[in-house]
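Appendix B, example 12.
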Amino acid sequence: MTEGFGRVDGQLAVGGIAVERLAARVGSTPFFAYDRGLLAARVSAVRAALPTEINLSYAVKANPMPAVIQHMRGLVDGFDVASGAELRNALDTSMPASRVSFAGPGKSLAELTQAVAAGVTVELESEHEVTRVRAVSETLGVAARVALRVNPDFSVRGSGMRLGGGPQQFGIDSERIPAVLETLGDLDFQGFHVFAGSQNLNAESICEAQRKTVELILGFGVAVRYLNLGGGFGIPYSARDKPLDLAPIGENLAALVDGPIRAGLPEARVVVELGRYLVGEAGVYLTRVVDRKVSRGKTFLVVDGGLHHQLAASGNFGQVIRRNYPIAVANRIGSPATETATVVGCLCTPLDLLGDDVELPAAEIGDLVAVFQAGAYGLTASPTAFLSHPAPLEVLV
């Protein structure tokens, strides 16, 4: 899980730069560092595995750093955004508005107006949102580009977070879709988006969801120009996780494109939307040891970061069972593990735990600790205002 990053003089290297040198450039710890080379390599691997007919869209919510979005513009075919701020950052690139989609429940009137005026595809999450977008279209005198996000009648086995099946705040229940289609009026209907689950490491489960999605959309019996099959590709976060095998997913998609999609939806631009899978393993969170203490036989390394920057690594971002993210003493990357230590942050809560009983080289005050798999759902998915510590910086190298 950490092999993609290089080493320089016994230190972890990001973008070929040793972490102590990188920390000196940044000027303070903690900070997030993202590796351009790893981002490009991951997109290239996905491209190689999936059929050429598949359009690859980046889910900006995974990492909305403007520099990352700008970099991804040259690698992917489209963006999916989930807020007005993400939309502005996406449109600040050269990505055509027609290749930007806007999903998520509870969009504000200002966000809907911004999206319709820009010409992006608004993915409608409820019947009320259909009414609101129609009103915005009438006010602006513009036929809004829209797609219906569907809450399917199936869920995805093995997903870390289920976004479809049963009652959901996401999407319109599939049984209501035929009635909703009749209410679209003059809206510029593009097609459908079905995203039933995320963080899935089971290739067959993803393939099954894709097959069921295509079958569901074909059942609506309408022509579409846009078919977003979602994504849900997971990355390993702990030693027990096995990396996702892309080969069977690519084969399954090829069969779907060449078969039922080409036959029943010949005009559809087929999209796979990925966020975490593209950026998650390309990022690392670096934080410095400010104290070392032993309490009743247990060694604690206290760092200047914590869950207020990297909530997911602490286990407080929806995990049922907390497991350690990969973690290392970044300036002693080649040294053997000689002790068991628990890495904790600087917050006044026992929840501020970055690594519990981790086998590490003996770390001293001043050493850098790296938390890997930090490229997605890190800084912007964390409670940065908790205890009023300064926000960390982010760098793309």
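The radius of gyration is 22 Å. The mean pLDDT is 94.
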